[in-house]
Design goal:
The protein is built from two helices and 21 strands. It is an alpha+beta fold. It is found in: Bacterial flagellum basal body.
């Protein structure tokens, strides 16, 4: 009976974690460049149950009853790097990154492209798909949190004011016609090696930095000024999945309550001396 308690509790924990993940996705449905998290439920290894009766099966193998499940768990959360819809804003500081057909990596997954961002006081490199940029007091292109957008030379891009222009390859020209530089676009052969750090930033978990996609003949992309990539969260599908997770949580909760009532009767009523 206690094994049933453990299985129901494991199911409740897994559905609670799934609900939290879906809630976070829905909360970021309007965040530019946000990539929805996805995960799958996996079962713990099953146990093979056999009848143990030394009196009737002495010297022979015990008959097999069947398998006993030991619960489920939520496997690691993985972002879905599918391209989001492109929305026109008319703001010169909004830049949408449109990636073409990407080559597949060794694991059969297509690669992904990202902006290169300088984050933190020590200049750590992070990556992002959020093209909602702004200009700081010194005239540099930054994220809304104040992190510098980096060029192909690894330095922040100083555009001066909002009257700059950008071509489809990321070449920037200031309002007075001077060439500013080129936005660096990083290429991740396996996007699953990137983990979310908040504020739209992703960290590469391996040594070094992601290689640039600039000049790579196998990679095609286009930058569009005045547009921004929307979140790839499907709000209606997410709501449906949240309802399913809630119902599954309730079902496991009822099972847990039934086991609790049975244990209560076993303790308080079975074997009572009248």
């Amino acid at each position: 009976m206690l094994r049933g308690l453990y299985g129901a509790a494991a199911g409740m924990i897994a559905q609670q974690q799934r609900q939290e993940m879906l809630t976070n996705n829905l909360a970021n449905a309007n965040t530019p460049g946000y990539k929805a998290d996805q995960a799958s439920l996996r079962a713990f290894p099953n146990m093979l149950i056999s009848a143990m009766d030394t009196e009737t099966h002495q010297g022979a193998s015990a008959p097999t009853i069947g398998e006993l499940t030991t619960g489920v768990y939520l496997q690691e959360r993985m972002p879905n790097f599918r391209q989001g819809d492109i929305n026109e804003t008319g703001n010169s500081t909004d830049i949408a990154l449109l990636q073409g057909v990407m080559p597949e990596g060794e694991l059969g997954r297509p690669g992904a492209l990202f902006y290169t961002i300088q984050a933190g006081n020590e200049g750590e490199v992070r990556y992002s798909r959020n093209g909602n940029f702004t200009i700081d007091g010194a005239g540099f292109l930054t994220t809304t949190e104040g992190h510098y957008l980096l060029g192909t030379n690894g330095q922040p891009l100083e555009v001066g004011d909002e009257n700059f222009t950008i071509d489809e390859n990321g070449l920037l020209t200031s309002s007075n016609g001077d060439a500013v530089g080129q936005i660096n676009i990083a290429y991740a052969e396996d996007p699953m090696l990137l983990v979310k750090e908040g504020n739209g930033l992703l960290r590469f978990t391996e040594e070094g930095e992601l290689p640039t996609a600039i000049g790579n003949a196998d990679i095609s992309f286009q930058l569009q000024q005045g547009f921004v990539e929307r979140s790839n969260v499907d709000a209606s599908q997410t709501m449906t999945e949240m309802m399913n997770a809630y119902r599954s949580f309730e079902a496991n909760q009822r099972i847990l309550q039934a086991y609790d009532q049975s244990l209560e009767k076993a303790v308080n009523e079975v074997g009572r001396i009248g």
